[in-house]
Amino acid sequence: MARTKYIFVLGGVASSLGKGIISASLAKLLQSRGFSVAIQKLDPYINVDPGTLNPYEHGECYVTEDGAETDLDLGHYERFSNVPTSQANNVTTGRVYKTVIEKERRGDYLGHTVQVIPHITDEIKRRIKLLGKSRKYDFVITEIGGTVGDIESLPYIETVRQMRWEMGRDCAVILLTLVPYLAAAGELKTKPTQHSVKTLLESGVQPDIIVCRTEKPLNQGLKNKIALFCNVEPSSVIESRDAKTIYRVPLMMRDENLDTEVLRKTLMPIETSPDLKKWEEFLYKLENPTDEINIGLVGKYVELKDAYKSITESFVHASAANECKVNVKLIHSEHIKKSNVAEKLKDLDGVLVAPGFGERGIEGKIIAIGYARESNIPFLGICLGMQCAVIEFGRNVLGYKSAHSTEMNPDTKYPVIDLMEEQKKIKGMGGTMRLGKYPCKLSKGTIVYDIYQTLNISERHRHRYEFNNEYLEEYENAGMIAAGINPSENLVEIIEIKDHPWFIGIQFHPEYKSTVAKPHPLFVDFVRAALKHKNN
Ligand code: GLN
Question: β-strand 503-506 against 465-467: which pairing, if any?
């Protein structure tokens, strides 16, 4: 196998231009030409991982198979490429410094002064090359968080400069910038792009390819102008127009030849052409639905669309699979009361109660679940959503009025959800939950068994609390059954209600595993059930 090529994706002018989507689209294109690709995100903040970050700060925390709490861009990578990521795919400044400081404390630097250059940059380099070292990948695409010119990105840009210098054509740098449209002038403006290239040049990095995010088409004249001012070839100025769906971007990048430019810059053969037939079929189904449903997503972060990113994307995959448009309506759990629940949830064909932590909004979630249970509306509870379903059933079916999770009420008389044994001794917050993939054994004769069509599954987790097995028998006798169990620890991972058309609570997070190539069966079947509910 040829040497691994390293592609860096940096951002200029503004944040939120979609570096993650461009990186994932490039990965998809290279993959569809037969290359193997890994994508990695470097985040310049000091947190060791985003696990301790509030969703308001950083959107959803994405969990990998190996239990890493990572940036939500890794979700895009998996959804586009269908290749699982791991801890190695997300590195933060905090993690880099932690490693270097631990080495220093061990005496590994033999008395030398430990400095940003070379020690921090060497550690960044080591982590970038780690993926390439396995020799599994033709390309490693490394996305660098933040925007060119940020103080905290400097060590990363310096690392890119060093790698580009040391590895020559085995490296290429893509800069994603914004070309704003000024309505008053009726013109697209290239100056901010020119300035961010100048800023990058101050750090010694010349981009090879410039991807321009724009709301209007760039004409060849503008492309030539950017090429001239920024020292790139006109063919290396790529237009990235606003798209109706992120899933169109790989096709747009193919039409703009982003992949061939990367192959050309890294001296790789351009013998094949991308095979995106399956992707195009998915997009066709997504964009030509034959029916439409409304799903209520009950959670407490409704102001922020990135907080439930993997869930909303899973609905997109399930939507294409069912050829049915899914309107996901975010419903603020704090606003749901007994008196208004029927009004708030009317017109819904399915209710999903979201994962979460802490007390805020919990009663609204429980009320919404009671409504879905009694009205026979298809219901999916994920993690905290499943725990709330257990609490609701305890309170309203078993008559344990004060049933609760000990997370919200440590002194409850009925701790139907309780801290897991292994969690009781844990003090620190970061990376200490039950994280990553665990096996689960399904029971025959359940809805989930019908859905998965297999007895043994594996799903990803992120929680500390769990169904309290002391109550299991009573629950099962009253009609809420354990449909899936962790075989070694006997933990209840899935609950179902027997005499409800579709009521499922899961302790794990199926949304982390749904991809374009493999929509998650639970979401696909939830949408099918909601469609059936609507048409009845
Ligand atoms: N707060 C709950 C727990 O820790 C649920 C977590 C979640 O929804 N991810 O168990």
Answer: unpaired
Any bridge partners for residue 353, and if so which?
298, 381
The residue from 58, 509, 520, 533 that is catalytic is 509
Instruction: Write out the two tokens for 234.
Output: 């006109």
Using the 8-state DSSP alphabet, how is residue 135 labeled?
A: S
Task: Give me the catalytic one of 383, 404, 463, 520.
Answer: 383
Which CA distances in Å does 396 have to 60, 102, 336, 367, 478? Answer: 32, 52, 17, 10, 11
Helix axes 121-133, 93-106, angle to 10 degrees: 110
Cis peptide before 118 (omega within 30 of 0): yes
> What gap in Å lies between CA 482 and CA 463, rounded to an integer?
18
Please say if 511 is a catalytic residue.
yes
Distance CA 387, CA 364 (A): 13
Confirm whether pTM is higher than 0.85: yes
Q: Would you say 520 and 528 are in contact if contact means Cβ atoms under 8 Å apart?
A: no
Best residue among 69, 311, 423, 462 to mutate for probing ligand 1, ranked by most atoms within 8 Å of CB: 462
The answer to whether the CB of 373 falls within 8 A of the CB of 498 is no
Rg of the Cα trace of the chain?
25
**DSSP states of 102-114 as a string?**
HHHHHTTTTTPPP
The pair of structure tokens assigned to 194 is: 């020119």
* Nearest residue by C-alpha to atom 6 in ligand 1: 463
What is the Å distance from ligand 1's center to 435 Cα?
11
Active site residue 509: yes
Q: Which residue CA neighbors atom 5 of ligand 1 most closely? A: 384
HSE of 222, CA atoms in CB hemisphere, 13 A? 20
For 483-532, the pLDDT digits (tens) are 999 999 999 999 999 999 999 999 999 999 999 999 999 999 999 999 99
Pick the residue with more confidence: 2 or 48? 48
Element (DSSP H or E) covering residue 295: strand 291-299
Own/partner long-range contacts of 237-242 (Cβ < 8 Å, ≥24 apart): 237/209, 237/210, 237/212, 238/209, 238/210, 238/211, 238/212, 239/212, 239/214, 240/18, 240/22, 240/176, 240/211, 240/212, 240/213, 240/214, 241/214, 241/215, 241/216, 241/217, 242/213, 242/214, 242/215
Judge contact between 148 and 178, C-beta under 8 A. no
Label residue 273 by pLDDT band (50, 70, 90).
confident
In the predicted model, is pLDDT for residue 304 greater than 70? yes
